[in-house]
Amino acid sequence: MSGSIFGKHFTIQTFGESHGEGIGVVVDGAPAGLPLSSEDIQVYLNRRKPGNSKYATKRAESDTVEILSGIFEGKTTGTPIALLVRNTSQRSGDYSEIASYYRPGHADYTFDAKYGFRDYRGGGRSSGRETIGRVAGGAIAAKILKELGIHVLAYTRSIGPVTIDYNHFDASFISANPTAMPDETAAEKAGDFLDKCIKDTDSAGGVIECVIDHLPAGIGEPVFDKLDARLAHAIMSIGAVKAFEIGNGTEVSSRLGSANNDSFTLKDGTVTKKTNHAGGILGGISDGDQIILRAHIKPTPSIYKTQETINRKGEEISVNIKGRHDPIIVPRAVVVVETMTALTVLDLMLENMHSRMDYLKKIYPSS
Amino acid sequence: MSGSIFGKHFTIQTFGESHGEGIGVVVDGAPAGLPLSSEDIQVYLNRRKPGNSKYATKRAESDTVEILSGIFEGKTTGTPIALLVRNTSQRSGDYSEIASYYRPGHADYTFDAKYGFRDYRGGGRSSGRETIGRVAGGAIAAKILKELGIHVLAYTRSIGPVTIDYNHFDASFISANPTAMPDETAAEKAGDFLDKCIKDTDSAGGVIECVIDHLPAGIGEPVFDKLDARLAHAIMSIGAVKAFEIGNGTEVSSRLGSANNDSFTLKDGTVTKKTNHAGGILGGISDGDQIILRAHIKPTPSIYKTQETINRKGEEISVNIKGRHDPIIVPRAVVVVETMTALTVLDLMLENMHSRMDYLKKIYPSS
Amino acid sequence: MSGSIFGKHFTIQTFGESHGEGIGVVVDGAPAGLPLSSEDIQVYLNRRKPGNSKYATKRAESDTVEILSGIFEGKTTGTPIALLVRNTSQRSGDYSEIASYYRPGHADYTFDAKYGFRDYRGGGRSSGRETIGRVAGGAIAAKILKELGIHVLAYTRSIGPVTIDYNHFDASFISANPTAMPDETAAEKAGDFLDKCIKDTDSAGGVIECVIDHLPAGIGEPVFDKLDARLAHAIMSIGAVKAFEIGNGTEVSSRLGSANNDSFTLKDGTVTKKTNHAGGILGGISDGDQIILRAHIKPTPSIYKTQETINRKGEEISVNIKGRHDPIIVPRAVVVVETMTALTVLDLMLENMHSRMDYLKKIYPSS
Amino acid sequence: MSGSIFGKHFTIQTFGESHGEGIGVVVDGAPAGLPLSSEDIQVYLNRRKPGNSKYATKRAESDTVEILSGIFEGKTTGTPIALLVRNTSQRSGDYSEIASYYRPGHADYTFDAKYGFRDYRGGGRSSGRETIGRVAGGAIAAKILKELGIHVLAYTRSIGPVTIDYNHFDASFISANPTAMPDETAAEKAGDFLDKCIKDTDSAGGVIECVIDHLPAGIGEPVFDKLDARLAHAIMSIGAVKAFEIGNGTEVSSRLGSANNDSFTLKDGTVTKKTNHAGGILGGISDGDQIILRAHIKPTPSIYKTQETINRKGEEISVNIKGRHDPIIVPRAVVVVETMTALTVLDLMLENMHSRMDYLKKIYPSS
Fold it and tell me: Is B214 helix (H, G, I), strand (E, B) or coil?
């Protein structure tokens, strides 16, 4: 296997390349009886679509999803849901140049090292277009979670040196601006920073934050399939993510225990914590509090500046990469982080349905 | 399943609780013909053993491993290797107090929320003793890697505010001091810091770094099973880890593309990179360079200070947790990070054996 | 998951329903560098296509396969290969009748029991058209096996009371006649028997046999993933198969040990057996001899005769099922048995690549 | 992996060899809150214990199970349950002879072919003692099923030429006689037949039948994880099983559709079938009727008669195998078939808990 399946109970298997016929995903494990339309999926795809903003590639793709299976009379049937997005804007141009050398920061060299050759057209399988399958599949996971009262929300926390101010947090602003930041002032500053990047033919990175609200306590498995471990796997599998944090994250390593522990308390008769340094996870299991995670994303490796590299003949050369590059991928990756998070949480919720004899008896009351 | 199996090809399944009969692991996927003795495993277990230093719990456990299966005449047979470490120092004391409330920063509450009750003796399955199974299984993975010329090395990078100086890096010093730092000066400062923590009845966290040398290029799968994603899963599944970084990690989010990209170059006829901000991974696949990862570990939640919490009756109470606590778990966790890394890398190396028709023909030359 | 993934290393995931958009499959684990064209797959699909003979449904489907991903310049890239066959001949007719009751011998009732409702158009996911995905995926497995010198061949062994005579065995005749028997005389008799079935508005069953030649010794895992156990899984997962045999199969239960054991002997310096009652498998592992298996297939449940059943309101009724039925599915299932066998064997061959340290060193010679 | 894990949700991983330290199993996926004692497991182990009857090996093993983990205060905790049975009666004798050649009908040759060498002491991992792990794990599955009102029962259907008469069926007689037949007259005849086998230094095979009562309709997945496919996998993974049947099994291939279809009808307001040729499974999913399966078991390959074989040097030789052989393994395998069936059914029941949105909402009622 080439590692294209994610999940154990609610699974997605993605396929497709940047410049092939299209990108698709087979979603399995969606319970029967969920109302589902292509529109439910399209709204998520539109959030990652190129051409949405001046900070994204100019490649014009409609990214229209077709449902190939698994839906009958507007509801899921319990069998695999296959979704296909055709590629329509692959430029037929000459790729012989890009085929001949290894772009710095890209997977060109490692694909060649692994397979002996590569589909060099637009990055092939390593292209960011691969995330279409994740987003389409994750849209279904997110819809199931919503039906269970659970909400997942991701947004840009920082771009380059600009970080949001939580006092200005406005969730409704996220989709209304090209940075996907929930803070209008920060978004403006980040915009200025990106404009400068573009002018300098350079690129920028940033941080995406994602929160899960109303997740019941008890989700996650004790040892290897801890909720945080599975989330880390999910998020770090997104290209360009180089670090992952849960709750207070990297900060905890320099804290004292007395400052880092969250005291338990009661609120309206429910167990909760006075603080949430833990990010809603204790011993790998959700504690009923808000789950908080962060993904650190590197600057887009494709830049117009001259770079040093080697070619397939093993000669050192200087290159100027042509093509249509995003100066930053963070805003478009926000929905990828959100959907990968949804997929992970739903998968572990299904797993948790097996955790108690009581649950088995609820589904199978012996007559 | 309770998430106690790790890996797809080389797998470990761990079992056991802090105060039960013992801790064990079943290792499957070890190829036949590897010379293996209990001593090979014991040297790894000894590195995580309590009682090794003044910064570890005083619980005196010999942690002696017994091989139950899978070895014949000193070599692996290709069938499951079961390893068992008996618990010998469980105190028979009264646990009714600890059973009655939820310790801050621990999994007591989340286990109860998940299962309806918990084995409260010493943390049960959520105890740090669970890592014995990982280390024992990972010792076998590390031995296989060594036979293939690949070396994994972990060490303490920082404790509280004290970080090592790479100019003083001395690998041989790691096992020779209670901080597991590779820098004598830093180790001394860290020791002073920990002494103060103990005096203050507080605890400390830190950062563990792990490097892999001589890993061939091509290891890791393109989409969900990227080498970095799988490493993140492995490392974040270790209790108390709250953040994970690969290469330049969190730093990349504020860098420019031109500064973050590593140029390819040639060295003695081999493709390499001028810098290694990527930490040896491009597109989720090893590039032949050194792999570098970091785990951020929270301060031990068990502290002697008075803390606020609630009890099982739902009453807010103040507690002083008794027992034998480590003021820091970082030094003992070093070998856990190292072995989890070894397990992950070996697993993906096995997966990669299927990546080319050439490889199939090497194993199955048709007559 | 809905059980739509087969295999551990070389996997297929199928999707689609009889009267939906189409039937597809995602094939993962094909090693990079295999020459592959849609024609390689189409020849297998053509063998199961309806309308090939008078004993098959009159539904006219071209079953043309489209490759959506995973191939570049005529070779597999090592990433998922998605294949799609569009449905073109779904009749738009009225299904309200069939929706209202449970056809005897069909999965109508059990789908309703499982999911609360069903896609009743042509059987939905339980239709025989589901096997298109298996055949398309298995065609790739068969091609890889051929490159390794291994050949899989299935044929009809019996139809109703007519069984082939091995003295008349002619492999070239299999594809040349509508029974898929390798014996011209038996094929004629079987044809007469089927003509009578059609006249009687009844249906027939039969036995498919499959042999694997030149499989090396050593394939199969010792305990749960024995070669015969995995083959049984594969073959029994084909709709309508009610029994599975390996080697002498059911006969062995009434034999004596002295008559059933196969003596080892030498032939041209190679270990072989004087007889092959075992069907080429000992202890779940191939012994280098020919693998022989049989699938017993029930008569098509859709018949034109009046039958008793109940409707969804819970009333007992008599029904005459309309539609386009095959009087026998055995000949069309031959290629399904062949491809499921190929998938299973290849999967276990990939697994076996991990069985020895020697093999690891062949792929990863340490420098 | 060496194929030692069975199941996807309720899993067992077995380990151990005939003459090693012992045989064990790790059971994962048992829901928390099930009352469980070692006695629950021991009663199953006692049914397969050698030395129970004159038709079984004289090796005297107490096969006493030790619970190593996963139980707290008499109840399952939801975490892995490790079980260990120490070997106590391994004869320390000389195995150099058996090491030097390949016993006909055994896995000696295929293990050597796979791994390059083998643990030749008593068959190592390919010994029938391996089934201890299955029976111990399956005992837990059977207990869970009982709590849900589902009963699994296996018995000997035939031994050599002697088959039971269903008119004399007496379930209580199964455990009361050394043939495990539920028919006293047949048991006597089978006993005479076995006495003759022993006298002739030969061995016998037979058929085991297993029925499942009160399994709800809806269990099994539509495509590859059909209930019958998974049962076939489970049963064919037991050493010496050479054929598997569900319902009318091999008979169906010569039947007409009109005779093979089971008409649906109502009984006390419940949907049922007038006949049960299908063995309780339609389209791979349980239909609420009794599940019926059969395993055909070959005669024990170890016989005292002189046999032809080859040795490791590649010389043809005659051998008389010494040691303690069962003249038949069928009666001891009955409990293995029963427990493997229980494991399979429970695993699919857990999977089915994900099949409907309704079920998710039962476990996660959103507040």
Answer: coil
Q: What are phi and psi of D317, to 5 degrees?
A: -140, 165
Whether residue C119 is predicted with pLDDT greater than 70 in this model: the reply is yes
d(CA A127, CA A129): 5
Alpha helices in A244-353 (DSSP H): 257-260, 330-352
Asked if pLDDT for residue A169 goes beyond 60, the answer is yes
Please tell me which residue of chain C has the smallest CA distance to B218: C364
CA distance D154 to A68: 44
Which of B343, B231, B335, B350 has its CA nearest to residue B7?
B343
Q: Which of B357, B29, B353, B366 is nearest to C359 (CA)?
A: B353
Give every CB contact of residue D154 below 8 A, 6+ residues apart in sequence: D208, D209, D210, D211, D334, D335, D337, D338, D341
Q: How confident is the model at residue D56 (pLDDT cuts 50, 70, 90)?
A: confident
As given in the structure block, the two tokens for residue C353 are: 């690549």
Burial of B188 (0-12, 13-18, 19+ CB in 10 A): middle
Cβ–Cβ gap D161/C254 under 8 Å: yes
Distance, in Å, from the CA atom of D72 to the CA atom of A357, rounded to the nearest integer, reads 15
Q: Do D264 and C309 touch (CB under 8 A)?
A: yes
Per CB-CB distance under 8 Å, the chain C contacts of D245 are 242-243, 250, 296
Q: Out of D126, D217, D257, whose CB is closest to C300?
A: D257
How many independent structural domains does chain B possess? 1
Domain that holds residue B253: 5-363
Tokens of D122: 């008593």
CB contact under 8 A, D1 and B11: yes
CATH of the domain at B99: 3.60.150.10
Alpha-carbon distance of D300 to D205, in angstroms, equals: 7
Q: Is D343 on the interface with A (CB under 8 A)?
A: no
- Enter the tokens of residue D72: 């707290």
Q: Could you count the other beta carbons within 10 Å of the beta carbon of residue C8?
A: 18
Interchain CB contact of B214 with C (< 8 Å): yes
Q: What is the ipTM of this complex?
A: 0.97
pLDDT tens-digit readout, C62-72: 899 999 999 99
Measure the CA angle with vertex D72, ends D69 and D76; round to 5°. 75
Q: Is A5 on the interface with C (CB under 8 A)?
A: yes
In chain C, whose CA is at the least distance from the CA of D12?
Answer: C224
Assign B142 a pLDDT band (cuts: 50, 70, 90): very high
Tokens coding A171: 């969730």
The kind and range of the H/E element at C334 are helix C330-352
